[in-house]
Each structure stands twice: as structure tokens, then as C-alpha cells.
Design brief:
Elements (H helix, E strand, L loop, with lengths): L1 E7 L18 H21 L3 E6 L11 H12 L7 E4 L5 H15 L4 E5 L8 H10 L5 E5 L5 E6 L13 H11 L4 E3 L9 H16 L6 H10 L2 E2 L5 E2 L2
Parallel strand pairs: 1-2, 1-4, 2-3, 5-7
Antiparallel strand pairs: 4-6, 5-6, 8-9
Helix pairs in contact: 1-7
């Protein structure tokens, strides 16, 4: 079984998805989107054959007065079918590379899990099928990556630790592959799937969600519902609008 760590920020206005505000979305909309994606990603992990570990930020890395564990637990209690089975642990590290490295190394070396993976809630299109496919690939490859656009990754799975120092610096997919090969672990890949962190990401994901919904294919339900409620769509000239 793979333990999948979801590196979650507390869904607080002004703290999450800042790059998406100022256009058709305001801070409240961006927070609602982040919350929906967090719930969909965690539910996908729960529905797969993996163990869900929710990694939340320490109190000193979130806005004053916010209890990061409670802020993350709140929306997940309603979203998960078995909320009592989800694990919650605080993240350790000042950078994404350090936080992923500390979590993955702890799981593999201290808890002796077979394989460990890290994803972020912005991996909105992560599905149970992709998680289970990655678990199968980890039987023959030491590192399995899910490439996103712009050299990012939406999934990173490991059968053994690598050198995580600056491993998530752009382009993360290349950096992580280099570390896997340098450690003689080998690397394999999942299909490319967009993450949702920038306006360009949203212009890619919104029509994809609408198309998949219309075709009655699998979609992240809470994220898709919010996109429809906000009236988000992409015009013929590529502009993201609402209403």
C-alpha cells in the first residue's frame, strides 16, 4: 500500500491561490476553489488503495489566529466517507522540497511503509485510477511522477528516498527524475494532467471539466460543481470569464 501525503494549506482567504485573484475570481472564490480541490483530492486518495495522510502547515507558517489542523479538518470531515481513518500530521520544512523530503523520508525509513507519495490539493484532476496506476508502477520503478504543465508535477511517488535538496525547483519533473536516476532508482510517469495554480491553469482546466462533465466522464465533483456555480467559462478568444 502506498501512503499518499496531501500537503494542505489552511483554506483561508488571502492565503491560498493568490495568483488566481484579481481576475474573475476574488479571494473568497479562490478560497472556495482551493477547498473544493482539497476535498476532491483527499476523497480520490481515500477511494483508492492508498492510505491518506493529510499534512498540514505548522502554526508559524499560516496567518495569525488560524489553527491549521482544524482549518484543514473542517472541510474534509464532510467530504470523506471514512473521516476517522484519515491521518493528520504537521509538515516539517521551510520549502516545498524540504517538506516533501521530510515527509517521504519519514514514511519510508521510520514507518517503513512500502511506498510513499506526495501531492498538493491543486492536483484537482487526480483520480483514484491514477493513484492506483502509480502504485502499480512503483513496483518496478523507484520513482513515479505525474507531470503537470510548465514542468511541475501533480504526483510524486517513491519506493526509496532521493536527494530532495531543491528537488522541486522548476522544472520539478526534470529535477526529480535526475535525482531518481542519480540514486539508481529509475523513473516512470503517469499521464500529464494540469494542476490549478495560475490563471493559465484555470483556462486549461475549466473547459476540460466542462467537456468531461458533458461527456459524462469522471470529474472531481466539488471542483466541477463550483466551476458551474461561479459560471466560469473560457471564451472563443481564450479569456476566462464568469456568468
Amino acid at each position: 500500500m502506498t501512503t499518499v501525503a496531501v500537503l494542505a494549506e489552511p483554506p483561508v482567504e488571502g492565503h491560498v491561490l493568490p495568483a488566481l485573484t484579481g481576475g474573475p475570481l476574488d479571494e473568497s472564490d479562490a478560497t472556495a476553489l482551493y477547498t473544493a480541490m482539497l476535498a476532491d483530492v483527499c476523497r480520490a486518495v481515500e477511494a483508492s488503495g492508498a492510505e491518506l495522510l493529510v499534512n498540514y502547515r505548522p502554526a508559524e507558517q499560516v496567518p495569525d489566529g488560524v489553527d491549521p489542523e482544524s482549518a484543514v479538518r473542517g472541510p474534509l470531515e464532510a467530504a470523506l466517507e471514512r473521516p476517522g481513518e484519515a491521518r493528520y500530521e504537521v509538515q516539517v520544512g521551510s520549502s516545498l522540497s524540504a517538506r516533501v523530503g521530510n515527509t517521504v523520508t519519514h514514511l519510508l525509513e521510520r514507518e517503513e511503509v512500502n511506498t510513499a507519495a506526495a501531492v498538493e490539493p491543486t492536483s484537482a484532476l487526480l483520480t483514484r485510477q491514477l493513484i492506483d496506476s502509480a502504485a502499480m508502477k512503483l513496483r518496478s520503478a523507484g520513482v513515479v511522477l505525474g507531470p503537470a504543465t510548465d514542468g511541475r508535477v501533480y504526483y510524486a511517488g517513491f519506493a526509496a528516498p532521493v536527494d530532495f535538496e531543491a528537488a522541486y525547483e522548476t522544472p520539478a519533473v526534470q529535477s526529480l527524475t535526475d535525482r531518481a536516476v542519480d540514486a539508481d532508482l529509475g523513473a516512470d510517469f503517469l499521464p500529464t494532467t494540469p494542476a490549478v495554480e495560475t490563471p493559465a491553469d484555470l483556462r486549461t482546466v475549466v473547459p476540460l471539466l466542462r467537456a468531461r462533465y458533458r461527456a459524462e466522464r469522471v470529474v472531481p465533483p466539488r471542483t466541477t460543481t463550483l466551476v458551474k456555480e461561479l459560471g466560469l467559462r473560457v471564451t472563443a478568444d481564450g479569456e476566462l470569464v464568469r456568468g
